[in-house]
From TrEMBL:
It comes from Aureimonas fodinaquatilis. SUPFAM superfamilies: Leukotriene A4 hydrolase N-terminal domain, Metalloproteases ('zincins'), catalytic domain. Residues 227-438 form the Peptidase M1 membrane alanine aminopeptidase domain. It catalyses: Release of an N-terminal amino acid, Xaa-|-Yaa- from a peptide, amide or arylamide. Xaa is preferably Ala, but may be most amino acids including Pro (slow action). When a terminal hydrophobic residue is followed by a prolyl residue, the two may be released as an intact Xaa-Pro dipeptide. Its EC number is 3.4.11.2. It holds the Pfam family DUF3458. Belongs to the peptidase M1 family. InterPro entries: Aminopeptidase_N-like_N, Aminopeptidase_N-like_N_sf, PepN_Ig-like_sf, Peptidase_M1, Peptidase_M1_dom, Peptidase_M1_pepN, Peptidase_M1_pepN_C, Peptidase_M1_pepN_C_sf. This is Aminopeptidase N.
Length: 878
């Protein structure tokens, strides 16, 4: 495929001032008539032709200024339309007719039908599947849209902007017209039509604008959008107060759709959502689902300013909207819930998703410089590391200057298609700082190693810290210059209080609780310390680095117990537990079975029982790292089989050691039935109670507790926690099979819950899982064309079941590649996303590496791979 390069960027030769579209929606096909008011940009050669993008399009008509264009003046193909002989400078109108077949559109890009509902997805390049267009984010226009459809088939007709007209047409048809007064790129275009239920509400913005809010769902489900609506209102309120951002249309519509390639889409005034991130109630959704809905609702809403009002000049700038918007949604959740708990869960996600990407063949900088398929760059690096960079900027500048920089960005670039340089320039100006070294974070791929060592001199009362940064060249081959790393820290006294540390000789590199490391190495001396303090380093995970710090077990145990900073406590305990498990796994591969020390496990029990901490935090502290996480820490020659056994045995020993404590905690934390609350505090109590079930059951070696909890569960969090223990720890027991059947019978007609049923079985670490999963593919409720269902089964196995995916005989790899090939012929984007499960294949032991490579090579040899899947497979093999 063709390689697109950032350095080749040029603005388009033509501008589009206005877009008018009419959609005639019918069963079997849709006719689209698009009228573009265009103009050659000043300075562009008069003979330069107009070249428009298309993708699998068929042209039905073409007129210039009202007159049909004669065939010798244009060249058309499904993926392009080229028109010669256009006016030199004057404005002209181009009318383009296209015929689409939404029912056959299984790629779910452009216009398609989901359970009969007409809907669109245009980011990144789906608009060109609707009409020929300059389909690039720097072409901004205002849009007017008219929709016509059968009134019974589509009583609801929605588009971007505000509704302006509607009415009946002959033959049982009707129409609706919408105008979006705001300039927007084509990727934010959307229409929806169908039989939909609606949950309505309204809100008055800070300056008094009345906004009608609506969430549309498939029939009968609107009530399940209640929590999403509440989250939307809180998001709108928060953005006004925290960032001074107000909503700018008379209506804000959300539509929940069953078939969707990702989480949701921020189309102007008409967000389209995967229904997973809208619909829930306590019986069908876990607390994690609630938190997910709140996050995604907020994220898409926040895009209205960071993404829509200010968009990206080109797709290389994707992190300009995504990293920033993730930062904003994380801040929202921190304010709405618990800040340390949210931070810990973000750090956890970053390490689980972004670190492996950064350390493997799919490595790329936060702002990439080349791509073959842009949809493959909606990655953890662009989103989550992108957010970390904004967070570092806020840390470096401080709250006030950061806010001033954001204000300037909104003011200066409203209505623009901007770049990372534009963004950074706003902060450089408001803070009066040179941020060119900081900007390296956007261009240099990889996770820097931060090596820290300390020595305490009792006589002098000094603590000397040495910090070094090192960035290795990885798959992306980008630069390795020292960057600006803000390192937050604390010096903790034996009483569990931070000691006010003075940096010797008013060291300019230390300000407040932050060391600004800008050189390859730095030595910093703290004075006036009459006792050796505990160093609480990289608090709040103030930079996305890999910390290498020789820290004694005693120091970690002490910090886990008395660091006044909650994140610091979690960090110390997690590093202790993670390193112990990784060491044991490495040793096991060499010399047979190993165990983690009782001291380490004892610290977990102690954290679980520490009532000075909120329950959600205790749950985070006492959950053992997952198998994939342990594999990441082992880093090379990984043996997933050993990790699986080691983890299960460690869980059992933890349950043994914590027995009494865990059981009484579970009893105390039990909620009286019928009193469900989705609040973060209640969710935290459920999280703690449920995370103790796994070690207790493993210790008992019996499914009784889990079976009892399953039978008595009154909410999905409790039910799922119990079912997971049953299916993963006791797959052969009758109670486990019965529970699975019961679960199916209860929720058979609920696709979102059924996804959990499929995913749980695919993630079950057992000898016969592959055979079971093969059977699931033939289950009557399995539908490969539905992304959520495909992700449940393929992702459950490839992403959440390491010991089966990495089976020694290679059968897991071959099975996944086989299904991906089938999926690719329907939905390339989702197939490519699932294929990233192979990204860490080189860290496996030699036998597995060989198996993985063989399976990938066979996949790569298939002739009809999509550009999406081929791009991932080839980069993974490189
Ligand atoms: N901007 C969309 C993602 C589009 C993905 C296209 N393959 C959702 C979001 O990040 O909010
Ligand atoms: Zn986004």
């Amino acid at each position: 495929g063709q390689i697109i390069k950032l350095e080749d960027y040029l603005p388009a030769d033509f501008v589009i001032h206005q877009v008018d579209m009419t959609f005639d929606l019918r069963d079997g096909h849709a006719d689209v008539l698009t009228r573009l008011v265009m103009q050659r940009r000043e300075g562009v050669a008069a003979e330069a032709p107009l070249e428009l993008d298309g993708d699998e399009l068929s042209l039905t008509s073409l007129a210039l200024n009202g007159t049909p264009v004669s065939p010798q003046n244009y060249t058309v193909a499904p993926d392009s339309l080229k028109i010669d002989d256009l006016p030199a400078q004057d404005q002209f109108t181009l009318e383009i007719g296209t015929r689409l077949h939404p029912e056959q559109n299984t790629k779910l890009m452009g216009l398609y039908r989901s359970n009969g509902i007409w809907c669109t997805q245009c980011e990144a390049q789906g608009f060109r599947r609707i009409t020929y267009f300059l389909d690039r984010p720097d072409v901004l226009a205002t849009y007017k849209v008219r929709l016509e459809a059968d009134k019974a088939a589509a009583p609801v007709l929605l588009a971007n902007g505000n509704p302006v007209a509607s009415g009946d047409l002959p033959n049982g048809r009707h129409f609706a017209e919408w105008i979006d007064p705001h300039l927007k790129p084509s990727y934010l275009f959307a229409i929806v039509g169908g039989r939909l239920d609606v949950l309505k509400d309204s809100l008055t913005t800070i300056s008094g604008r009345h906004v009608e809010l609506a969430i549309y769902t498939e029939p009968g489900l609107a009530e399940r959008a209640t929590y999403a609506m509440d989250a939307l209102k809180r998001s709108m309120w928060w953005d006004e107060r925290r960032f001074g951002r107000e909503y700018d249309l008379d209506v804000f519509n959300i539509v929940a759709i069953s078939d969707f390639n990702m989480g949701a889409m921020e189309n102007k005034g008409l967000n389209v959502f995967n229904h997973k991130y809208v619909l829930l109630d306590s019986e069908t959704a876990t607390d994690a689902d609630y938190a997910g809905v709140e996050t995604v609702i907020a994220h898409e809403y926040f895009h209205n300013w960071t993404g829509n009002r200010i968009t990206c000049r080109d797709w290389f700038q994707l992190c300009l909207k995504e990293g920033l918007t993730v930062y904003r949604d994380q801040e929202f959740s921190s304010d709405e819930r618990s800040r340390p708990v949210k931070r810990i869960s973000c750090v956890h996600t970053l390490k689980a998703n972004q670190f492996p990407e950064d350390q493997g063949p799919l490595q790329h900088p936060v702002r990439p410089t080349t791509y073959r398929e842009i949809n493959n760059f909606y990655t953890a690096t662009v989103y989550d590391k992108g957010s970390e960079l904004v967070r570092m900027l806020a840390t470096i500048l401080g709250e006030d200057k950061f806010r001033a920089g954001m204000d300037l960005y909104f003011e200066r670039h409203d209505g623009d298609a901007a770049t990372i340089e534009d963004f950074i320039a706003c902060f450089a100006q408001t803070a009066n700082m040179d941020l060119s070294q900081f900007a390296l974070w956007y261009n240099q791929a990889g996770t820097p190693r931060l090596t820290v060592s300390q020595s305490y001199d009792a006589k002098a009362g000094t603590l000397t810290l040495n910090l070094q940064q090192q960035l290795d060249k990885g798959a992306a081959g980008t630069g390795t210059l020292p960057m600006h790393i803000p390192v937050r820290f604390g010096l903790v006294g034996a009483n569990g209080q931070d000691i006010a540390a003075e940096a010797a000789s008013d060291d300019a590199r230390v300000s407040g609780d932050t060391i600004h490391l800008t050189t390859a190495s730095a030595t910093i001396v703290f004075t006036g310390l009459n006792q050796r303090p505990l160093l609480s380093i990289l608090r709040d995970f103030s930079a996305p680095v890999q910390l290498q710090y020789e820290e004694s077990e005693a120091d970690r145990l002490a910090l886990a117990r008395l660091d006044p900073d909650a994140y610091g406590r979690w960090r110390a305990l997690t590093d202790l537990v993670g390193d112990s498990l990784a060491d044991a796994a490495r040793q096991w591969a060499k010399s047979g079975p190993q165990t983690v020390s009782d001291t380490v496990l004892g610290a977990i029990v102690e954290a679980a029982d520490d009532t000075s901490l909120e329950p959600a935090l205790r749950a985070q502290m006492c959950s053992l790292p997952g198998e994939t996480e342990i594999a990441r820490l082992v880093a090379e020659d990984v043996n997933p089989e050993i990790i699986h056994t080691l983890r299960l045995q460690t869980l059992a020993r933890l349950g043994m050691l914590g027995g009494e404590t865990f059981r009484s905690l579970r009893a105390e934390l039990a909620e009286p039935a019928g009193e469900f609350s989705a609040s973060a505090a209640s969710a935290g109590r459920r999280a703690l109670r449920n995370c103790l079930l796994a070690p207790l059951s493993a210790a008992a070696g019996r499914p009784d507790d889990a079976a009892k909890q399953y039978a008595q569960a009154t909410n999905m969090s409790d039910r799922m926690a119990a079912l997971t223990v049953l299916v993963h720890q006791f797959p052969q027991e009758l109670v486990s099979q019965d529970a699975l059947t019961d679960f199916y019978n209860r929720f058979e007609s609920d696709p979102l819950v059924l996804d959990k049923w499929f995913a749980l079985q695919a993630a079950s670490p057992n000898a016969d899982t592959l055979e079971r999963v093969e059977a699931l593919l033939h289950h009557e409720k399995f539908k490969l064309a539905n992304p959520n269902r495909a992700r449940a089964v393929i992702g459950g196995l490839a992403g959440a079941n390491p010991s089966v995916f990495h089976r020694a005989d290679g059968a897991g790899y071959r099975w996944v590649c086989g299904v991906l090939l089938q999926l690719d012929s329907l939905n390339p984007q989702t197939a490519a996303r699932m294929a990233t499960a192979f990204r860490s294949w080189r860290s496996m032991n030699p036998a597995l590496r060989q198996q993985a490579e063989a399976a990938l090579r066979q996949l790569a040899a298939s002739e009809n791979l999509s550009r999406d899947l081929r791009d991932i497979v080839e980069r993974t093999l490189k």
